[in-house]
Amino acid sequence: MKIALVSPYDYSYPGGVSTHVAHLEREFLRRGHEVRVIAPSSRTAEELGNPRLLALGRPVPIALGVGGSVARISLHPRLSPRIKQILAEERFDVVHLHEPLVPFVAITTLRFSRSLTVGTFHAYAESHRGYRYLRRLLDRYLSRLDGKIAVSEPARAFISKYFPGDYTVIPNGIDFPLFSSPAAPLPQFQDGKLNILFVGRWERRKGLPDLLEAYRLLKGDFPQSRLIVVGPDGGRRAPYERLVSDYLLRDVHLVGLVPSSELPSYYQAAHIFCAPSTGKESFGLVLLEAMAAGRPIVASDIAGYASVIGHGAEGFLVPPKDPQALAAALARLLADGALREQMGAQGREKAQQYDWPLVAAQVLSFYEQVRQARLLARGA
After folding, report:
1. Which of 182, 188, 222, 367, CA to CA, is 20 to 30 A from 125?
2. Which of 117, 160, 85, 121 is CA-nearest to residue 8?
3. How many CB atoms lie within 10 A of CB 365?
4. What is the Cα–Cα distance from 36 to 33, expressed in whole angstroms?
C-alpha cells in the first residue's frame, strides 16, 4: 500500500504524536509499504535525513491555555494548493491523519482527501472550548473519516464527548528492544546514589515544580538520592535553576534535551521513574519506556497514566499537584530495593505488549477492516 501519515505538529520537535508517526513509518516500511510523512517542520527533510518527509509550512509555537501546554503547528494560510497537489500526484491508498481536527495541515488534508481516510485521536482533556463552540462545523469534517482510532480509553472518551461515534482503541507503542536492552552506561550517575528520573517537556502541566517540591521534602531523609531532569526546557531553564537555588537543593541535574538514542541510558541509570503530570495526558508513553527498562513508576493518578499502570503493581499512583503524596511514594521506593525490583519486573512484562511491531500490525489490520467496510457500503 501507499500510505500518507499526516501530523499537524512540528515533525522535527520532540513530541508524542511525532514519535508515534515516526515509528509507524518505520514499521510500515519494514513490511514493504510505501510511506510519505506530511507535516510542518522547522527543519528540512534533508536536515532530518528523511526523504519521505513532505514538509508543509514553518511551525510556530502556540500556547494552548491551561497547564502551559504549547503546540508547534503551521498557521500558513495558503497550504490548500500544495496539499491538493500532493494528494493528486501521490494517489495514496490510505491517508492516516493524526489529530485530524488540528489546524492547518491535518484538517486541510482531511478536507481534500479522496483516499481511504483514517484519523487517530491522541489528546485528552477535561474539556475543549474549540470543540464545544465549533462542534457543528468540525463535525462536517469528521464525517469524511472512513475510520477512527483513539490511542486510549481516556482519549476515546474525550473525543466521543464532542463527536460521538465508533472509535477503535489502538494504543501508542514503544521500541521495546531499544529500552529493554543494555544501554551505554552513564558513569556520572553510577556512584551509589539512588536516581529519580523525570523525562518530558518542562511545561507546568508536566508537574516539574511539584517534583522539585517533593524532592525538597524527601532529600533530608534520603541524602544519597539524586534527581535527573531530561527533556526540552522550552526556554524555562533559568526559572527552574532559580527554584533549585531557592530550595537549596543538592544533586539536581537539569540535563535538558538529549538525543533519543541516549534516552535508554538515562532510563537504565534511574532507580525510579517519576511522571508528576497535572492532567491532559491521554497515554503514558514515557511510563512504558521506563517500564521496558525495568524501572518502577511513581506517577500522578490521572486518566492517561492510570490506563497504563496499576497502583501497587508496576508503581504507585498519587493525586496530582500533591508534592507531599509524591514525596511519600518516592520515599517508599527509595527505602525498599526489593519492592523496586518487583515492580520493575512487572512493568517490563507489561511493556512488552506495547512493542511497535504489535501496534503497527493492529493499525494495518484496521486499515483493511475499514477498506472492506467502505467497499460494502458502496456496494449496498
Report:
1. 367
2. 121
3. 12
4. 10
- The one-letter amino acid code at 103 reads P
Residue 223's CB is within 10 A of a number of other CB atoms, namely 9
Mean pLDDT, rounded, for 38-58: 94
More confident residue, 103 or 22: 22
SS (H, E, C) the chain: CEEEEECCECCCCCCHHHHHHHHHHHHHHHCCCEEEEEECCCCCHHHHCCCCEEECCCCEEEECCHHHCEEEECCCCCCHHHHHHHHHHHCCCEEEEECCCCCCHHHHHHHHCCCEEEEEECCCCCCCHHHHHCHHHHHHHHCCCCEEEECCHHHHHHHHHHCCCCCEECCCCECHHHHHCCCCCCHHHCCCCEEEEEECCCCHHHCHHHHHHHHHHHHCCCCCEEEEEECCCCCCHHHHHHHHHHCCCCCEEEEECCCHHHHHHHHHHCCEEEECCCCCCCCCHHHHHHHHCCCCEEEECCHHHHCCCCECCCEEEECCCCHHHHHHHHHHHHCCHHHHHHHHHHHHHHHHHHEHHHHHHHHHHHHHHHHHHHHHHHHC
What is the homologous superfamily of the domain 2-173+355-379 according to CATH? Glycogen Phosphorylase B; (3.40.50.2000)
Whether the CA torsion 290, 296, 300, 306 is positive or negative: it is positive
191-218: pLDDT as tens digits:
999 999 999 989 889 999 999 999 999 9
Domains 2-173+355-379 and 176-353 fall in the same CATH topology: yes
In the predicted model, is pLDDT for residue 20 greater than 60?
Answer: yes
Gyration radius of the chain over CA positions: 21
Domain boundaries of the chain, sorted by first residue: 2-173+355-379, 176-353
CA distance 87 to 56: 13
Q: Is 293 left (phi over 0), alpha (psi -120 to 50) or beta?
A: alpha
Rounded CA separation 3/1 (Å): 6
Classify domain 176-353 at the CATH topology level: Rossmann fold (3.40.50)
- How many CB atoms sit inside 10 A of residue 141's CB? 18
The pLDDT of residue 13:
84
* Polymer length in residues for the chain: 380
Q: Quick check: 110 and 137 in contact, CB under 8 A?
A: no
